[in-house]
Design a protein that fits this description.
- The protein is mainly alpha-helical.
- The protein folds into two domains: 84 residues, no CATH class; 300 residues.
- It contains 20 helices and no strands.
- The N and C termini lie far apart (115 Å).
- It comes from Brassica oleracea var. oleracea.
């Protein structure tokens, strides 16, 4: 009779404090019932006077041990299920209180709002910019939101909030650079799917190198013709070019990849300008100097994408030559070695020149100044590579003849 009342009491208590999780509900109730039945069955086998006069049988010992084990399991499960059934826990306060008391939440162990939360919000907004298509009206809304957060952080004149801008922009710059490189790689793979593999097979045959070189020459001529057509198409405005490209492509995957590449390049230029505005241009210079793979892919990119990369590189090299910019000499060398070839081989548009005449002169001066601060051996490598590219390129920019002459003069002086 007493055992049945105990079971009823346990069931009543459990119903009034039922956990919210179904799995824990089942496990907890099973454990409680098993423990109660085992202990009650052991106690009912003998009275109190009999327990003092005889030993327990083997079945009693097993039942008692089983009861103890289930009781231990019950104690282990209670802390897991207790927070879910408590109406005053910190989880309940955070999840269900509409205007919760901040002091109460802090007392329950919930972290107070900090500057890092604003940094996470800015990183989230910048990441959304990479995901949203440029044709969506929400894209400009997201960009405006990021600009608003960064501008208000800068107006606060707080060092921690300025660091939020710099850290978020540097992280987004690195992520966008990696995504742009992957997009260019996919675009090149799509172009070479039907052309690259057969040429490699032909080259492996006897006298196949001559045939492959002829085919490559023909391909270069076709690409040049396409480049001229692209330059003529630049007479249209940028928005019209995008609309006409969408109409011509009819939603093809290849055109979508090209638009995505151009979008990422434009975002990189925007981030570079923001890095300069908020005093984190050194971080952009370091990350751009490591983008050797992207620099290699940029030589065969579309003219508009090349133009955007030329602008980014020119901006960073211009900042590199400033006395206030402090970066190691290795960073200077990597930046110039990776991106100077693009200046010589980029195909510039007619209606929308990448750089004005004044900007080109300023970039040449910045390159000259940056090279002059490097060791003689680094100068030799950079200027030799520049001369190789400049001599075979149709472009007359950048003209680093003064830097080459100065380096030759310095070598003569050392010899004398």
């Amino acid at each position: 009779m007493s055992s049945s009342r105990e079971l009823q009491y346990l069931e009543y208590t459990y119903r009034n404090n039922r956990p919210t999780t179904g799995l824990l509900n089942s496990i907890f109730m099973t454990t409680v019932n098993t423990a109660a039945r085992s202990l009650v069955s052991v106690a009912s086998t003998a009275s109190t006077s009999e327990l003092a006069s005889r030993r327990w049988s083997a079945s009693d010992q097993l039942s008692f041990a089983s009861g103890l084990l289930t009781a231990v399991a019950e104690n282990a499960l209670v802390p897991v299920s207790a927070p879910s059934s408590s109406s005053t826990s910190s989880t309940a306060l955070v999840k269900y209180s509409g205007s919760g008391n901040l002091s109460m939440m802090m007392a329950d162990g919930v972290d107070a709002p900090s500057v890092s939360s604003l940094g996470r919000a800015l990183c989230h907004v910048l990441a959304l910019m990479n995901e949203i298509p440029v044709t969506s009206r929400k894209y400009h809304f997201t960009m405006g939101m990021a600009e608003k957060i960064m501008e208000e952080n800068a107006l606060s004149c707080n060092a921690e909030l300025l660091d939020v801008n710099r850290t978020a922009l540097a992280s987004s710059f690195a992520r966008t650079t990696a995504r742009l490189q992957d997009s260019l790689k996919r675009s090149r793979t799509a172009d070479e799917t039907f052309g690259g593999l057969p040429l490699r097979l032909v080259s492996a045959l006897p006298l196949g190198g001559y045939v492959a070189s002829s085919v490559r020459g023909l391909t270069t001529a076709i690409n040049t013709a396409r480049s001229l057509a692209d330059m003529a198409g630049n007479l249209l405005s940028q928005s019209k070019r995008r609309e006409s490209a969408l109409v011509r492509a009819g939603g093809s995957q290849e055109n979508e990849v090209e638009l995505a590449v151009e979008k990422l390049a434009e975002e990189l230029l925007w981030m570079t300008e923001k890095l300069r505005r908020y005093g984190a241009i050194e971080e952009g210079i370091k990350r751009w100097s490591y983008a050797s793979g992207l620099a290699s892919l940029s030589l065969t990119a579309a003219p508009r994408v090349q133009g955007l990369m030329v602008k980014i590189s020119a901006l960073l090299i211009g900042e590199l030559a400033r006395d206030t910019t402090q970066v190691p000499g290795q960073v200077k060398f990597r930046l110039l070695a990776n991106w100077l070839p693009l200046f010589s081989h980029a195909r510039n548009g007619l209606a929308f020149p990448v750089l004005t005449g004044y900007e080109r002169v300023e970039v040449e001066r910045a390159i000259d100044k940056a090279i002059s601060t490097l060791p003689a051996l680094d100068q030799e490598i950079l200027l030799t590579n520049w001369l190789q590219d400049f001599s075979v390129s149709a472009s007359e920019w950048p003209d680093l003849t003064p830097a080459y002459d100065r380096w030759c003069h310095s070598i003569r002086q050392m010899a004398v």
